[in-house]
UniProtKB/TrEMBL annotation:
Domain of life: Eukaryota
Pfam families found in the cross-reference section: RVT_3
PANTHER family to which the protein is assigned, alphabetical: BNAC02G40300D PROTEIN, RNASE H TYPE-1 DOMAIN-CONTAINING PROTEIN
Protein name: Reverse transcriptase domain-containing protein
GO molecular function: nucleic acid binding; RNA-DNA hybrid ribonuclease activity
Occurrences of domain Reverse transcriptase (ranges): 1-139
UniProt-listed InterPro entries: RNase_H-like_dom_plant (IPR044730), RNase_H-like_EbsB-rel (IPR052929), RNaseH-like_sf (IPR012337), RNaseH_domain (IPR002156), RNaseH_sf (IPR036397), RT_dom (IPR000477)
Length: 460
């Protein structure tokens, strides 16, 4: 032992380290250092290969966590025998024994079952397909980084939900209310009263098809509120200003809006059909009763695909929104795909269905259930008669591709059960080009999917 920089006489310890001993806190480090030596020797001699990670192919042979260790090696008979020899050398040198009853072996996904059956019994430990957690955290994360920590997030949410509302400050409640308002406003439209609270360029306030927002290339900063377009004395629209700012279709939509300065409220467009009227500021103009989406998970290993389409009649453009989820409600894939020269909503829905099939083929799913709220499309796909409508080529292509799957079913669902796909389609404002996500989705979509997952009922 070295003391004050000098080597002292050798001695043989007669008792183990006790609690309170100055060396006790270093006990695990001392043991880990002893275990590290035979591992490094085996790597230098080529008996232990470890595993390569990252773009730089960094080789990792072990990870030490206090008195727990993770060893990486080749999934072969020679690899396991070499690993067993390293452990045996450590046991003989240190006098310690590995507790194999509390150990397990985990194989990566590219190791076939025959190899697992040969290699597993060599160490005499349990073979696990689902690695255990360490200190409450998953030991294996892989590509599904968000899903690996879902349980931790849910525990935090559960703890927070148990807080007594009485303990919340008035300021905290106010922030909560305004946070909900912002969420609802994204998919609701304003009913115009005096126009003082509605932004011309950012809010949804136009009646008719679309999401109710102004589609305009040039924004005149002299006009910001809808109130700037209203003659307050006569309570009528300023037609001259409106004709200067907007095109023919927006002008028709604007002047068709009846004005009532005593009413200022949000009305639901298409996202939450169960809701009615909401008022902010001033007198309450109505009540709010939101029916959240009802989505049922698939059975067994089936992947459920929900699709929807956003159609803009003016630009003759549509955007397909598609999301794939498993029986646990976890997102497996998602995409938005724009289409040009789309004549009508039926063509938009059929194109969205075709894109859903294409995405599923790309992901390699074999057992799938496709859901959508386009009843016409579903009827045509279920029909055995040859389709002769304007979308007959799309229907034929969908049916042809459908033969490539082991199991394929599709069914019509109400809009309430298809809301996540609906929101995916309305993401078209952010993504001009086609976009794909693997095991994740845009933030708003993930929030809704997570809510549906927590509220889901068994079956599907």
């Amino acid at each position: 032992m070295g003391i004050n920089g000098k080597n002292r006489e050798q001695f043989r310890p007669q008792r183990g380290l006790r609690q309170g001993d100055p060396l006790s806190s270093y006990l695990f480090l001392i043991c880990a250092e002893g275990f590290l030596r035979p591992i490094e020797l085996a790597k230098r001699e080529g008996r232990l290969s470890g595993t390569n990670v990252g773009r730089g192919n960094v080789s990792i042979s072990h990870l030490f966590f206090a008195d727990d260790s993770i060893l990486f090696g080749e999934a072969s008979i020679d690899g396991e025998n070499n690993l067993k020899r390293v452990i045996k050398d450590y046991e003989e040198a240190s006098g310690q024994l590995v507790n194999f009853d509390r150990s397990l072996i985990y194989f990566s996904g590219n190791v076939d079952l025959a190899t697992q059956d040969q290699v597993g019994p060599i160490l005499g430990v349990r073979v696990s397909n689902n690695p255990e957690k360490y200190l409450g955290l998953p030991t294996m994360v892989g590509h599904r980084k968000k899903h690996a920590f879902v349980a931790i997030k849910e525990r935090c949410v559960k703890l927070l939900s148990n807080w007594n509302m009485i303990l919340l400050s008035t300021r905290g409640k106010e922030r909560s209310v305004w946070g909900v308002r912002h969420l609802l406003e994204e998919e609701m439209g304003w009913q115009i009263g005096n126009g003082e609270f509605v932004n011309i360029w950012n809010d949804n306030w136009l009646p008719g098809p679309g999401n109710g927002s102004i589609m305009c290339q040039n924004i005149d900063i002299r006009y910001s509120k809808v109130a700037d377009l209203i003659n307050k004395e006569t309570n009528t629209w300023k037609h001259e200003v409106i004709n200067t700012l907007f095109g023919k279709e927006p002008v028709k939509a604007i002047v068709s809006i009846p004005l009532n300065p005593k009413i200022h409220k949000l009305i639901v467009n298409s996202l939450y059909p169960g809701a009615r009227n909401i008022s902010f500021g001033g007198e309450i103009a109505g009540t709010c009763k939101v029916s959240w989406p009802i989505w049922e998970p698939p059975n067994n290993d089936t992947i459920k695909i929900n699709f929807d389409a956003f159609f803009n009649q003016i630009s003759r453009r549509s955007v397909s929104g598609i999301i794939a989820r498993n029986k646990e409600g976890l997102i497996m894939a998602a995409c938005t795909y724009p289409w040009e020269n789309i004549p009508d909503p039926m063509m938009a829905d059929a194109s969205a269905y075709l894109q859903a099939i294409i995405m599923v083929e790309y992901m390699g799913f074999q057992d799938i259930c496709i859901e959508g709220d386009a009843l016409t499309i579903m009827n045509k796909l279920n029909s055995k008669e040859e389709d002769k409508s304007c979308i007959c080529n799309l229907i034929k292509e969908i049916k042809r591709r459908g033969n490539n799957f082991r199991k394929l079913s599709f069914r019509h669902v109400p809009r309430e059960a298809n809301m996540v796909a609906h929101v995916m389609a309305k993401e078209r404002g952010r993504y001009e080009q086609s976009r794909f996500w693997i095991k994740e989705a845009p933030n708003m979509v993930e929030i809704m999917a997570d809510r549906e997952r927590r509220n889901r009922s068994p079956g599907g």
